[in-house]
Design brief:
Length: 198
């Protein structure tokens, strides 16, 4: 009986360290991990996720030299549970801070904690958040499974991109992948990307 109990616990132990973990450096071309999140140490992801973030940041910077992507939590190296997340255990999840701009259009400095955006919040930088979404869903090699984002932010971002004449196929793909989760917070303070596990 005890052996059975022990065996039934094994999968959970194995699961905690099952992904091939690579670290996202604390900063690189077009991105940085602000101190609040760097200190937590959730900087590990699958090569697909880490590669995606690095490529997306680089493309964003090329499209908009004034844009720096602020990256939040990925996973711990061994996939252990943390007090901050229910997911972020398999190296496929990353929290990205939403772009915010001042009245002059310049990006706001990295915050020390995530900031929630109300529906009418003018500091939400709709255009840069679209560029981020675009970079994620149009990546050459990593497939995005889902992007969690509050529905009103999704609407503002996609409406703006449509008005700017963005490619229809890309817009349709983004509309399919971006969704407000039903089983956790509405994601009005960050964009959560989950990639397909290999
Ligand atoms: Zn999240």
């Amino acid at each position: 009986m005890r052996l059975v109990l022990l065996l039934s616990l094994l999968p959970a132990v194995v699961e905690a360290s099952r992904f091939h973990a690579v670290a996202l450096p604390p900063s690189g071309p077009g991105y940085q991990v602000p101190p609040t999140w760097a200190d937590r140490g959730l900087r590990w992801g699958t090569p697909e996720l880490v590669g995606l973030l690095q490529r997306a940041a680089r493309r964003l910077r090329a499209w908009d030299p004034g844009a720096t992507l602020y990256v939040g939590d990925l996973s711990l190296r061994d996939g252990s549970a943390t007090r901050w997340h229910r997911s972020h255990r398999r190296g496929v999840d990353a929290d990205l801070l939403l772009f915010a701009a001042g009245a002059d259009g310049r990006q706001k400095p990295a915050p020390t904690r995530m900031q929630r955006y109300a529906r009418s919040d003018r500091s939400l930088d709709v255009r840069r958040n679209w560029l981020l979404t675009k970079a994620l869903v149009s990546d050459v090699s990593t497939q995005v499974r889902v992007i969690f984002l509050a529905s009103w932010i999704k609407r503002r971002v996609l409406d703006d991109a449509r008005q700017r004449g963005e490619d229809k196929k890309l817009l349709a793909k983004a509309a399919r992948l971006v969704t407000q989760p039903s089983d956790s917070g509405p994601h009005d303070d960050h964009l959560h990307v989950r990639v397909v596990a290999r």
